[in-house]
Amino acid sequence: MPTTLDTSILGAPVEVGAISKELKKLWDSTGASKSRASLINFAVYSADASGMAGLTQSINEFTRNHACRALLILAQPEATESRVSAWVNAHCHLGRAGAKQVCCEQISFLLEGKACQFIPSIVFANLDSDLPLHFWWQGEFHDPIDEQLWAWVDRLIFDSQSWRDPRRQFALLQASIAAAQSRLTLCDLNWARSLRLRQALAQMFDHPDNAPILEQLEHVEIAHAPGFRSTALLLVGWFAAQLRLTPQSRDGALLFTTGDGREVRFDLVEAAGRSIGRCHLRAGAAGVKVERDAEGDFFHVEVRLADGRLYRHVLPAGSNHTISLLTDEIGHGSRHRVYLKALAATRALF
Amino acid sequence: MNPHAPTAANPLREGLSNRQMPQPCSVVIFGASGDLTFRKLIPALYNLAADADLPAATNIIGFARREKTDESWRAELKETTAKSSRSGLNEQIWQTFGSRVYYHPSEFGQAAGYQSLAQRLDTLDTQSATFGNRLFYLSVSPTDYEGILTQLAAAGLNRPRDGAWTRVIVEKPFGTDLASAYALNEAVGRVFREKDTYRIDHYLGKETAQNIMVLRFANSIFEPLWNHRYIDHVQITAAEPLGVEQRGPYYEKSGALRDMVQNHLLQLLCLTAMEPPTDLGADSIRDEKVKVIRSLRPMTPADVARNVVRGQYAAGAIAGKEVPDYRAEDRVSPQSMTETYAALKVSVDNWRWAGVPFYIRVGKRLAKSGTEIAVQFKNAPSVLFNLPDEPLGPNVLVIRIQPDEGISLRIQCKMPGNAIHIEPVKMDFHYGTSFGKASPEAYERLLLDAMSGDATLFARRDEVEGAWRFIDAIEDAWHQTPNPPPLCTYPSGSWGPKEADDLLELEGRAWRRM
C-alpha cells in the first residue's frame, strides 16, 4: 500500500483479485433505500496520483447525472516498486424518482512502477458487461497507445487545452485510432467548451435576415483567455469548415478565402476572462457580436444589420467547469463529425 | 418552401441539433388569464428560452377579456413562472423573455379587438422580424372556439402572408361527442387548413409516450413477439387518487370516458397497437394510428353491457384521510350518474391483434396514482416445469408513463436451491434512476414542434373523429337506451368496482397489481 498518499477518499482497500466479491459485499450491506444504477463504464486515467481527491469528487458530481461504474486509474510510473492497489466505494444521490438513493460504484486503482503497463487488463477485468466504455484520459497521450484497449473504447474524452504540443498529440491520437481500427468517438472538452457559443452563433443565423452577414463575412475577432488559444483555434476551424474557407498562409496571419475568392481574416486576441470571452463577426457595417458577461453565465448578443436595425438578445452561456462540460458531452452523445472537420481545417495552425 | 424558415442553408447549424428548428413567430394565447397559461404555457415558453431553444425573435401576446397592461401581465407571469417553471426563474433570461411578452385585452367576440391585434402583430413583425409567422393558441373553453376563429378570419389573421405561416393550436376537449367534434373541426377547418391545425394532447408530449415507438421499433427483440401469437392481452391503466377537486361542473358533463379514454388512453392504445410507419413524418405516423382507430370493433348496446363497466366513487379513505363520495363533491349533482371510473374490453380487429383484448381502465379516487401500459405475454407451454394446477405466471412488459417513468419486464426465474422452484422476478428500468437530467415538460416539446411545423405529436382530425365514433357508441348505450348498464360504486381508495374485476375474471385474467 502506498504510504505517501492519503487514499482514504477512495473508500475501502480491497485485493485486486477480490473486487467483484467486495462490490457484492458493498451492495449487500446497503439497505432497500438504495439502488445501484449503471448505464456506462466510465474509466478515468491520470498520471498524477496526487489528484485522486479532486477526481473522486469529479466522479461523484458526474454520477449525479450519469449512472455509471467508474474506474479511476491512477498511475505512478516513476515508482521503483511495481504494485497495483485497489479500493471500492459508492456515490449515492437522492434520485429524481423519489426517496430512493441512486448509487454508482467507483473502483480505484493505483498502478506503480512497471504495473502502469497493466491499464488494459485492469480495464478489461472490471467492466460492467454490455455497457459502453467512456474513457476520460487526463493530460497527454504517450506513445504507444494500446491498440486493444482503444478498440474497446466507445468515447475517448480528453482536453486538448491542457496539451503542450497539440499538433503532436493530435497526430499520435489519429495514428493510434487508425492502428486500432477503432470506431471510437473523440470527445475533446476543449471543443465542448465552445458549444454554447456555437449554439448562440448558429441561432442568430437561423434568422434569414442575418444570413448575409455570413455570406459576406470579412472579419472575425475572437477574444480568448490566456491559455485558451487552442479553444479559439478550434472555433476558427469550425468557421472555416462550415463556411468552406480555404486557409492562406501569409506571415502567420489567420487568413482564409471563400469559394468566390473573397478574403476572410481571423484575429485572436488574448484577454482576461473565461475561455472565449467574445466573438465578433463583421461584414461591412453589419455584424454579430457575442460577448460573455462578467459573471460568465450569459452571452449578450448584438446583431447589427446593414440597414441599421439592431437586435439584442441574452442567451445562456452554460458552465465552463470540467464536470459540466463532461456531463453535457455525455448527455448529447454526438459523433462529433463537425469537430473532426474543424480539426482538419486548423490542425496545421496549432 | 417558406423563405423565412430557418434554413438548412445555415451552415453553422450542422451537428448542433438533430431536430427541425423552430421559426421566429408571434405566439398569441387566447385565454391569457387562464390557469393553463400561467401554470404551463408561459413556464414552458420561458424554459425554452432559458435553454436557448426558443428563437430569439419570438413574441408572446396574451389575449383575454380582463383589463390588464403589458406590465401588469408580465408581473403576474413572472411571479407564477418562478413557482411553476422546472428550472426556476433567472432574472436576466426573464428580462429578455419578458420584454417580448405583451397583453391585448379584448372580448372574444369583439371585432375591433382582432383588428387592433392584427395591427399590433404587424408592428411586432416589423420590430422583431417575425415575418408574419403566427401561432394562435386557443386555451379557452370550446364554446369560445368558433367565435374566436370567426373573428380571426374576419380580421384576416388566418391568412398567411407570402412565405409565412399561421397555425392554430386547439386544446382538448375536441368536442364532447362525434357531432360536436365534427362541428368543431368544421369550424376550425373553415378558418385554418388541416395541416395548420395542431390538436394538443399533452400525453403525447411525455417522454415515455414518445419512447413507446422507440421501444417497439428500435429493439429487435420485441417486434417479432408483438402480435396475437405471443401476446395474451394488453392492459392500459390511468389511475389517480384525486377526486374531481374544483372541476365538478366540467366533470359532470364529461365523465371519465370522455375526459381520459377518448383522447389520452386511445392515443396510448394506438401507439401500442400501430404498425411500423414508413418513416417518421407526421402523416406517416398518424396514418398508422388512424388505421388502429378504424380497427376498433364498434360496440352495440349489448357489447357495452358485456364489455364496459362504469363506476362512481363512494366515500372512503385516501392516504389515511376520509374523503366524501362523488355526489357530495362541490357543484356535483346529488343524483349524478357521471362515471368517475370506466373499464373497457376493446378489440382491435386486424391481423396483428386478432383475439387479443385491450383492457382499458381509468378512475379517480383509486388507491394509487399511475399511468401505464402492460403487455402480458402468453404463458409458456405447460411442459417441463409447469405443474398442471400451478401454471407459471406470464411475462409482462410494463411501460410506465407516469409517475416514475420507466420500463419493466417480468420473467420467470429458478429460485436458489436443490429443487426446481420458479418465481417471477422483475427487470426494472427507471428514467429517474438512470438519467439524472429531468425531461422537458410535455408542453415545451409540443410548443416547439408547433413552431417548427412538426405535427407528429398532435392529433389529426380523422383520429379525433374516429375516437369519438367509438366512444359515442358507449355513451349512447349508457344514456340513450331504455335499460342502460348499471352505474357501479366503489369505495374511494380501492381499485374500482368489483364488476371491473369480473370483466377480466370471466376470461381467466386479472388486472395487474400496480
Uncertain runs of chain A are: none
CATH architecture of the largest domain in chain A: 3-Layer(aba) Sandwich
Percent helix range of chain A: 25-40%
CATH architecture of the largest domain in chain B: 2-Layer Sandwich
Structural class of chain A: alpha/beta
Main sheet specs of chain A: 9 strands, mixed
Summed over residues and divided by their number, the pLDDT of chain B gives a mean of: 91
| Shape category of chain B | globular
Weakly predicted, low-confidence segments of chain B: none
State the share of residues found in helices of chain B, binned by percent: 25-40%
CATH superfamily of the largest domain in chain B: Dihydrodipicolinate Reductase, domain 2
The structural domain count of chain B equals 2
Give the count of helical stretches of chain A.
Answer: 11
Major beta-sheet overview of chain B? 9 strands, mixed
Report the CATH topology name of the largest domain in chain B. Answer: Dihydrodipicolinate Reductase, domain 2
In N-to-C order, the SSE pattern of chain A is EHEEHEEEHEHEHEHHHEHEEEEEEEHH
Oligomer class = heterodimer
Please report the number of helical segments of chain B: 14
The whole-angstrom Rg of chain A is 23 Å
Biggest interface between chains:
A-B, 50 and 38 residues
